[in-house]
Amino acid sequence: MPGEAAARRRHLRRAMERFEKERPRNLLAEAGCHDFIIGLDHLKPEFNVGKIFRSADAFGAREIHLVGVGPFDPRPSMGSFRHVPARWFDSIEECLADLRAREYRIFALDPAGAESVYETELPAKSAFLLGHEEYGFSFDPAAEPDITTLSIPQYGHVQSLNVSIAASILMYEYTRRRYLGKTTPARSVASSE
Predict the structure, then answer these.
(1) Does residue 16 belong to any structural domain of this protein?
(2) 82 is in which domain, residue-wise?
(3) In this structure, is residue 189 part of a structural domain?
(4) pLDDT digits (tens, 9 = 90+) for 112-158
(5) What strand order describes the sheet that includes 147-151?
(6) I need a surface site. Which of 46, 77, 82, 122 has the fewest CB within 10 A?
(7) Could you tell me whether strands 105-109 and 126-131 are parallel, antiparallel, or unpaired per DSSP bridges?
(8) What pLDDT is recorded for position 160?
């Protein structure tokens, strides 16, 4: 399929041209109105990264940390790459050190996470880490005692959400609580019948 390979190369070249054009504009981006940070640990740069910038802009993220993520096509961000500050890190250790120095509570999203996002306190300075779409995190969150693994409850047969959708759910839950004036979740009380 020589034609398909050539089309793929043209697509990648255009994506990199868009990135090079938008990157200087991102350097001027200002932090959003909320203190939360999204950390993307070695995500595939082709599609989800731009979509996560779009949601981060919508929900007022402070910034996005890109760990091991190279240039990506900003087109799916619909211009939001210009508005959400991006910080690049070569390793997850550098990213975690930065978050800890800034006194962020760190959460790692994991389908088998110890706590449900709906039942966990989300302080103003929350950092949400999302791993690679196929391979997960580049580190073991269980080996980091200050990192809480979160899950998003799911009720279907397949326990899998697209990473950009999962990021949007986290951002929505965080901002929903601020809108309601509550940072801690409301706990249901079982009746004593």
Answers:
(1) no
(2) 36-180
(3) no
(4) 888 999 999 999 999 999 999 889 999 999 999 999 999 999 988 88
(5) 86-89, 63-67, 37-41, 126-131, 105-109, 147-151, 115-116
(6) 46
(7) parallel
(8) 81
Considering the domain boundaries, does residue 145 fall inside one?
A: yes
Is the sign of the CA dihedral 165, 169, 174, 175 positive or negative?
Answer: positive
Kindly report the number of other CB atoms within 10 A of residue 8's CB atom: 11
Count of domains observed in the chain: 1
pLDDT at 27 over 50: yes
- CA-CA distance, 183 to 177, in Å (whole number)? 5
CATH assignment of the domain containing 94:
3.40.1280.10
What is the rounded CA–CA span in Å between residue 49 and residue 47?
6
Residue pLDDT, tens place only, 60-98: 999 999 999 999 999 899 999 999 999 999 999 999 999
User: Quick one: pLDDT at residue 12?
Assistant: 85
Q: State the amino acid at position 30 in one-letter form.
A: E
Asked whether residue 19 is assigned to any structural domain, the reply reads no
b/e string for 164-178 if b means 16 or more Cβ within 10 A?
bebbbebbebbbebb
